[in-house]
């Protein structure tokens, strides 16, 4: 039996913060160190007067016997999952201590454990946010119903702060991952095409809209995870934009790839400022992509909400912004030209624009603009 946890075990515990799969070698090592039958970690949630399993990671032996164990120790019938209102569970404990004064329950537990080849359990645990609980459950070998030894208690006391720190790191990673997904969803929702890359244009993330544009662009491609320009001049201009930001600290740079009539692609490169050093671009660059020939459309319903237009007025405003003349709009809608002129006067009045050119500029500057690029 190992006297104290070694560095490999402790470093393994921290690896679990990023991957639940890392628990397997950690638990196998704990099992071997204490010469016990099984070692399992669980995250438990409170449900009424009982604890409920939220997730479980097992050592290799427990994985092989998981079905049998779940019939007895990993379900609502397990008396260890019963909450005791007047009793705060100890950070380190055992079946002998937990069921002290309850010989009937302890006897039932012993009988069930014997059926599945396990002895008494010892454990280390602590509360988590949101009324959850972390628990390392270690079962002795069949027929071994000894209480927690001083050596085992010292071993678990050494591990406990590392378990707490790893659990805290895992929660932070989970929250950051969830927040990242929310931001990605928000970016997709506004129709923006955005990717994130480093100064060498190695792409770390791209939303579906940006991937679609790169896939069909005659000027830009993604090869081996890196943005590549097909034209030497475009490549030089794009490289200069990244270097200008990285070296001079300018807030952003724009680059046009291709030319008029050649399906041009416009890029805006913006630094992702490092939290540790606001002057550094160590956290990479956000690149937004726009195809001017497929610049988008204006959502008539959103124009109505933004400027207080009627449905008819908002349809007219969207059509004019898209380049239609009043006559073309009137013919397409089957209305008199005079009606279209009246609707335009109403739109100008409600938006505060003095002339049609000013109206178009104002409409395209609004948040009703939706990037399409489907053609």
UniProtKB/TrEMBL annotation:
HTH luxR-type domain span: 306-363
InterPro entries in the cross-refs: PAS-like_dom_sf, Sig_transdc_resp-reg_C-effctor, Tscrpt_reg_LuxR_C, WH-like_DNA-bd_sf
Signal peptide location: none
Protein name: Helix-turn-helix transcriptional regulator
Record organism: Novosphingobium anseongense
């Amino acid at each position: 039996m190992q006297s104290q946890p070694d560095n490999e075990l402790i470093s393994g515990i921290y690896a679990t913060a990023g991957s639940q799969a890392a628990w397997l070698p950690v638990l196998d090592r704990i099992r071997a160190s204490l010469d016990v039958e099984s070692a399992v970690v669980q995250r438990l949630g409170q449900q009424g007067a009982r604890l409920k399993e939220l997730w479980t990671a097992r050592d290799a032996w427990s994985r092989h016997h998981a079905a049998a164990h779940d019939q007895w120790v990993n379900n609502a019938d397990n008396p260890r999952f019963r909450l005791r209102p007047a009793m705060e569970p100890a950070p380190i404990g055992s079946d002998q201590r937990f069921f002290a004064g309850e010989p009937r329950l302890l006897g039932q537990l012993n009988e069930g454990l014997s059926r599945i080849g396990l002895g008494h359990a010892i454990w280390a645990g602590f509360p988590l946010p949101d009324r959850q609980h972390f628990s390392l459950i270690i079962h002795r070998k069949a027929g071994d119903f000894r209480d927690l030894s001083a050596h085992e208690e010292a071993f678990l006391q050494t591990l406990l702060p590392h378990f707490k720190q790893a659990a805290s790191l895992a929660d932070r990673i989970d929250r950051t991952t969830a927040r990242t997904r929310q931001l990605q969803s928000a970016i997709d929702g506004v129709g923006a095409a955005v990717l994130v890359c480093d100064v060498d244009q190695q792409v770390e993330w791209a939303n579906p809209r940006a991937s679609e544009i790169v896939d069909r662009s005659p000027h830009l491609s993604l090869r081996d995870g890196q943005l590549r320009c097909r034209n030497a001049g475009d490549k030089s201009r794009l490289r200069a934009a990244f270097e200008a930001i990285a070296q001079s600290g300018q807030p952003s740079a724009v680059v046009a790839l291709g030319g008029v009539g050649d399906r041009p692609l416009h890029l805006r490169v913006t630094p992702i400022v490092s939290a540790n050093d606001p002057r550094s671009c160590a956290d990479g660059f956000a690149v937004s992509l726009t195809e001017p020939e497929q610049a988008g459309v204006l959502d008539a319903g959103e124009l109505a909400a933004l400027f207080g237009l009627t449905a008819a007025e908002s349809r007219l405003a969207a059509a004019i912004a898209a380049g239609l003349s009043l006559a073309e709009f009137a013919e397409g809608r089957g209305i008199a030209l005079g009606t279209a002129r009246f609707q335009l006067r109403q739109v100008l009045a409600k938006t505060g624009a003095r002339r049609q050119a000013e109206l178009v500029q104002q409409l395209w500057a609004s948040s009703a603009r939706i990037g399409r690029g489907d053609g």
